[in-house]
Amino acid sequence: MLANPETISPMSAHVVLDGKAIAERMKCELREELAHLKGHPQLRILYFDTPASIVYKNAQVHVARDLGIWTDRTQTDGTYCFPWKTATQHDVEQLIQKWNRDRFVHGIFVHQPVPPQIDPQRISALIDPRKDVEGIHPDNSARRFFAKARIGSCTALAVMRLIEETGVPLEGKEAVVVGHSEIVGRPVSMLLLDKLATTTVCHLGTDKAGRLEEHVRRADVLVVAVGRPHLIKGSWIKPGAIVIDVGINVVHGHVVGDVEFDTAKARAAFISPVPGGVGPVTVMTVMRNTVEAFKGQQAESSGKRDG
Ligand code: NAP
Questions:
Q1: Most exposed residue of 113, 121, 199, 224, measured as fewest CB within 10 angstroms of its CB?
Q2: Whose CA is nearest to atom 40 of ligand 1?
């Protein structure tokens, strides 16, 4: 925990939430847990040959190897790359079905966005829900709706972990989520509701109506997941707010978020940077979900043996 909630006043702290440090702590917790497991969780990653996907995949592979999460029988790194332009629905589905059938594969992660010729909802529905470490299968989305998800959206859980680190209770707070995608905005808004935050979800329609600033200005907790550099002006941030920036944008060769960081930091009590904020925690959450998926499948197969 980074601060006592009672000490937070609008002018007191401007804490930058260190995603790398949080991810390191999560890694230690996971290492401890992995040491007590029988067997090795194995993760498979399907990605596309875009720069963003390759960077993300490399970060996942680095962490997975470090944790020893996959000791792949084929000695490959457990990833498969499809060409963005020529990947077909059929080929992507064939690979997912192969991984679904393989009892040595415990987690499946498909990078988003997928190319336009691929239907992302068909892909989400095809992944075995027990192996769905991104929490995108309709069964897992439904469990989230009923606040009963065992495996949730990695990015949404990472956002919540960063918010938890502030130590600020969410009950009764005004939470504003900008972006309503299936993998980030919507699941985050569900998790904020579970914590009894009064939650508003903004999207393109809000911006087109010229009302984005008005909603952002009253946010005690602001989560932005759009993918538009500096969409949120620092001057809009409510003094003392918690600001979590999920956006990843490359501007003149530099990675930046969706929030104007320097001006926002001067007003916020807590803010996550880009890079080094949500990203590393999301990668670690994929690993956490893989371990959860592994444990679930182990328990299921031992139940079958016992029964
Ligand atoms: P997405 O599927 O493209 O969704 C973007 C959302 O932003 C949509 O709901 C869209 O609304 C909304 N939007 C677009 N323009 C807007 C505007 N002017 N004002 C308000 N809302 C607007 O993207 P995503 O997958 O959610 O990802 C969002 C960002 O987060 C991207 O930069 C992505 O790279 C990043 N990301 C980071 C991580 C991480 O671990 N750090 C993980 C996942 C994603 P409409 O649908 O109404 O157009």
A1: 121
A2: 279
pLDDT tens, 109-122?
Answer: 999 989 999 999 99
Exposed, middle or buried by CB within 10 Å (0-12, 13-18, 19+), for 167?
A: middle
Q: Whose CA is nearest to atom 48 of ligand 1?
A: 204
Ligand 1 atom, smallest distance to 158 CA: 40
User: What tokens does 84 get?
Assistant: 């963005």
Average pLDDT over residues 121-149: 88
CATH number assigned to the domain comprising residue 208:
3.40.50.720
185 CA to middle of ligand 1, Å? 7
User: Does residue 79 register a pLDDT over 80?
Assistant: yes
Same domain for 85 and 199: no
Domain of residue 208 covers 154-280
The one-character DSSP state at 259 is B
CATH code: domain of residue 75 = 3.40.50.10860
8 part of a folded domain: no
Q: Decide: residue 230, CB within 10 A, 0-12 exposed, 13-18 middle, 19+ buried.
A: middle
Quick check: is 198 in a domain? Answer: yes
- Closest atom of ligand 1 to 277 CA is 41
Residue 14 falls inside a structural domain: no
- At 250, the pLDDT band (50, 70, 90 cuts) reads confident
For the chain, how are helix, strand and coil distributed in percent, rounded to 5?
45, 15, 40
Q: Which amino acid is at 186?
A: R
* Residue carrying the six token digits 């999301």: 282
Q: Is the pLDDT of residue 90 over 70?
A: yes
Shortest-distance atom of ligand 1 to CA 249: 32
Are 73 and 170 part of one and the same domain?
A: no
**248 within a domain of the structure (yes/no):** yes
Residues with CB under 6 A from ligand 1: 112, 155, 178-181, 183-185, 202-204, 206-207, 212, 225-228, 231, 246-249, 278-279, 282
